[in-house]
Design a protein that fits this description.
CATH class: Alpha Beta
Strand content: 15-25%
Strand order of the largest sheet: 1-2-7-6-3-4-5
Number of helices: 8
Shape: globular
Structural class: alpha/beta
Order of helices and strands: EHHEEHEHEHEHHEH
Length: 197
Amino acid sequence: MVVGSRGHGTIESMLLGSVSAEVIDHAMTPVLVARRRRIDRVVLAWDGSTSASRAAKLLGRWPIFARSSVRVVSVADLEIPSLPDFPGAGSPELMEIYFAAADASRSRHDLLASEMTVDLQAAGLTAEADCREGAAATEILAAANAFEADLILLDTRGRTGMARLVLGSVARNVLHHASSSVLVVRETPREALKPEA
């Protein structure tokens, strides 16, 4: 499904919802929000999940991507945990836990980006890995800007209602702030029931 974007402001889009965001929330097929005339440079937002795999498979299946250059962006979330059983903020125990978790997250996302890059190259595509750390939507957008991407390809797990309004999903945040086209592949109901590997 292909829809346009009228570029409503962030607050208006967040509160009222743009047509393209509403279509993405309910469509069972991939939705392209078209803002550019070409797709020479593609950013694939990659976290190794089942739903992200559906998005990645389109790169090999759809002939329109045959000549595209792909940047595989995987973002390590390095937030400091905040749980009742954790030591107090700034304590040596918490910092030790944080650094161990951050190192593990970086390593995992480095591996994810590298493996997907190799898979895309094996499929005949030009691809490179870009592992980042921070907030997923912010880093995906920064990677797209740095790469001068024509298209951001990502999945959505279909968060709806108040949770979407207050927290926002990565896909929705990328959609509202990207200057490039955005192709969103929605998780199917069956996939939502599968545990992540």
